[in-house]
Amino acid sequence: MSQNDESVKVVSAEREMAVGVDRIFELIADPAAQPSWDGNENLSRAEPGQRVRAVGEVFVMTLTTGAVRENHVVEFEEGRRIAWLPSEPGQQPPGHLWRWELEPLGENLTRVTHTYDWTNLNDEKRKVKAAATTSAMLLGSMDRLAALAEKE
Description:
Blueprint: E1 10-17, H1 21-29, H2 34-37, E2 43-45, E3 58-63, E4 68-77, E5 81-87, E6 97-106, E7 109-117, H3 127-132, H4 135-151
Antiparallel strand pairs: 1-7, 2-3, 3-4, 4-5, 5-6, 6-7
Protein name: Polyketide cyclase
InterPro entries: Polyketide_cyclase/dehydratase, START-like_dom_sf
C-alpha cells in the first residue's frame, strides 16, 4: 500500500536521539522553538511564552503562508507525550492530530515517535494534503529536532 494512499490515515516515524528526554521535550513543548526543527518548512513563528504544560491549553502558530493556527492540546504528560489538534482561529479543530512520544532509553538516549493521525479529519479540502503526509516527512522533522537537541 502506498504511503499516500488515502486508506493510510495514521502515519508515524520513530528514531533514537543521543540526548536526554528533557531537552527534546522542551524543544517540542515550546511552540517558539518548533519552526527551528520543522522539517516540512511549514511553520514560520510562534510568540514566546506559550510553553505547553497541560491538556486543554491552546498555542498559536503562524505558518509560512501567513495563516494562523490555534493548536488545541489534547494529550500531555510532561517529558513523555504531547499531542494537539490544529484549527483555524475561533474554529473547531477539523480532526487531524500531531503527536510526539518520548521514551527514555538511558541518560542520554531517547526513542522518539512522531505521529500524524487524520482518522477523524472531517474537512474535505484538507484530505489531499493529509494523504500526502508521509513517514519520510515526519522523519525530516525528527532529524532536524535531533540535530538541534544533540548539539546543545
